Amino acid sequence: MSFNVAIDGPAGAGKSTVARQLARQLGFIYVDTGAMYRAMALYFLRQGIGAKEEEKIGEAVSRVDVSIAYENGEQQVLLGGENVTGLLRTEEVGNMASASSVYPRVREKLVELQRRLASEADVVMDGRDIGTCVLPQAHVKVYLTASAACRAQRRYEELKEKGALGTHTLESIQADIEDRDYRDMHREVSPLRQAQDAVLVDSSEMSIDQVIEAIRRLMGR
Ligand code: DC
Questions:
Q1: What b/e readout covers 202-212, taking b as 16+ CB neighbours within 10 angstroms?
Q2: Percent share of the chain, pLDDT over 70
Q3: Which of 7, 25, 35, 169 is 20 to 30 A from 105 in CA distance terms?
Q4: Interaxial angle between packed helices 91-100 and 33-46, expressed in degrees from 0 to 180 and rounded to the nearest 10
């Protein structure tokens, strides 16, 4: 049976950095589920569908083809065969992903893909509902969080480094993060919450390496 590690938590807690490096160290596959919701969101944006148009989103879900491939161990997300990985990490796509991921039809389609990947290989999977819904039997579950101020600061540095700050300020990024937290935690289907058997790790005062070490200790590896 494959070994599954589930890492959930709010935006900007460091999930993807931690999960990617941990997977590499262990020879596991890293599954970034946020990127799948972002790819769907990109499709809706391209189709000119608004975040509130549930019926149109539902119809679009039955047409959209999201799949995953790996290149040099890095997850690539394909939308109808087109590699859209490089287009997903914008604020616009992130906000649309948060808004459209409230719909059950969006979630059902992606959860099925996620479960299949986890059954086929040893994975470190990160997201919002991995420990609570997608992989309730995961061997290790971590709820990784950090203060909103700390997460906004990290996101700000990341965008600045990429030269992608645009009109964003530290304040607007923190406001976006708080809005997104609220939506992710209060939606009806699979809200973000710590699974009962997940271990809470607060990364506010921890380095990436310290977080990874803590998770490896939980795994006994
Ligand atoms: O982790 P991220 O910022 O790439 O995720 C983008 C959005 O996708 C997030 O705001 C909520 C949604 N999401 C989700 O609902 N469930 C997941 N397992 C992963 C992401």
A1: ebeebeeeebb
A2: 100
A3: 7
A4: 100
pTM, rounded to two decimals? 0.94
Does residue 73 register a pLDDT over 90?
no
Interatomic CA distance for residues 32 and 22, integer angstroms = 13
Tens digits of residue pLDDT in 168-219:
999 999 999 999 999 999 999 999 999 999 999 999 999 999 999 999 999 9
* CB of 127 sitting under 6 A from ligand 1: yes
Mean pLDDT over 91-111 rounds to 95
Sheet holding 66-71, edge to edge: 66-71, 74-79, 82-83
What would the 3-class secondary structure string for the chain be?
A: CCCEEEEECCCCCCHHHHHHHHHHHHCCEEEEHHHHHHHHHHHHHHCCCCCCCHHHHHHHHHHCCEEEEEECCEEEEEECCEECHHHCCCHHHHHHHHHHCCCHHHHHHHHHHHHHHHHHCCEEEEECCHHHHHCCCCCEEEEEECCHHHHHHHHHHHHHHHCCCCCCCHHHHHHHHHHHHHHHHHCCCCCCCCCCCCEEEECCCCCHHHHHHHHHHHHCC
**Closest Cα to atom 14 of ligand 1:** 128
Asked whether the beta carbons of 19 and 122 are under 8 A apart, the reply is no
- Regarding the beta carbon of 128 and ligand 1, being less than 6 Å apart is answered yes
